[in-house]
Automatic annotation (TrEMBL):
It is found in: Cell inner membrane. This is Heme exporter protein B. Belongs to the CcmB/CycW/HelB family. One of its GO terms (cellular component) is plasma membrane. Pfam families: CcmB (PF03379). The chain crosses the membrane at residues 29-47, 54-74, 110-130, 136-160, 167-188, 200-223. One of its GO terms (molecular function) is heme transmembrane transporter activity. It comes from the Bacteria. Keywords: Cell inner membrane, Cell membrane, Cytochrome c-type biogenesis, Membrane, Transmembrane, Transmembrane helix, Transport. GO terms for biological process: cytochrome c biosynthetic process; cytochrome complex assembly. InterPro entries: Cyt_c_biogenesis_CcmB, Cyt_c_CcmB_bac. The gene is ccmB. It is a multi-pass membrane protein.
Amino acid sequence: MSPLSSLPVAMAATLRREVLVASRRGSEWANPLLFFVMVCSLFPLGLGPDPRQLANLAPGILWVVALLAAMMATEGLFRSDFEDGTLEHMLLSPLPLYGHVLAKTLAHWLLSGVPLSILSPLLAVLLQLPPTGMPALMVSLMLGSAVLSFIGAIAAALTVGLRRGGLLMSLIVLPLYIPVLIFGSSAVQSAVEGVAVLPQLAMLGVFLLLAVAFAPLAIAGGLRISCDQ
């Protein structure tokens, strides 16, 4: 069997392995969700109970906190593999590294971004977001969190060999997160105001397609650089 023909099998095996490992390390994917819930719950206490004020700020609050939660979840994406030698094995494998990192990033999104998107309507109710903004919130977070996972994985690959790479990772990803934040929060705000949200969602979809196509190449390059140091 050629490496290319066995690539889907290897990707499926990597995806299954990541889900099983994450199920045994519940804190790694549960902590970002708890952070998302706790921080969003604090805003009504700090801003006051005025429903109109909370509703105006809700799209930005939800997206900013979701962005920070995604960054928290991505920091250790490749660290355990780096420490136990799995990453070196992947680099020496005859199969393209593109498939491995794509499967790992998709698993990360399934365990962090998807639950965050599903949980968001409950916190949106707490922040007095009108019901008209709920579908746009969930769809924009589904698309946007996937883009954030790919961008964060690039920074995680570049800093995996550093003991304290959290600050450097933040400096790398935050400028790249800003377009996703702008279009994501704008989609929710437009839905609340009754304006068409398809342009913003389409841009998030474009970002996701570009991330799926090119981010694994950058991630693979970053891992090789980190392991060669």
